[in-house]
Design brief:
The protein is an alpha+beta fold. It has 1 helix and 2 strands, in the order ββα. The protein is elongated, with a radius of gyration of 15 Å. The structure holds zinc ion.
Length: about 60
């Protein structure tokens, strides 16, 4: 039996992968949050940008 715990990258909650409807996230909700980040916001990945030097800092 595989009951490996995974940690959701969105809410940092640990869950069993086999219980998740949308791995590697704990839930469909977190999956969509992550997707939204990729599409609409800056993800916390260092990226070199040459086009957008002046990026407005939007705080939620
Ligand atoms: Zn989550």
């Amino acid at each position: 039996m595989s009951s490996a715990l995974m940690r959701c990258p969105i809410c940092k909650r640990e869950f069993r992968g086999e219980d998740s409807p949308a791995p590697p996230f704990c839930s469909e909700r977190c999956r969509r949050i992550d997707l939204g980040r990729w599409l609409g916001e800056d993800y916390s990945v260092p990226v070199e940008r040459e086009d957008e030097d002046e990026t407005p800092a939007e705080e939620n």
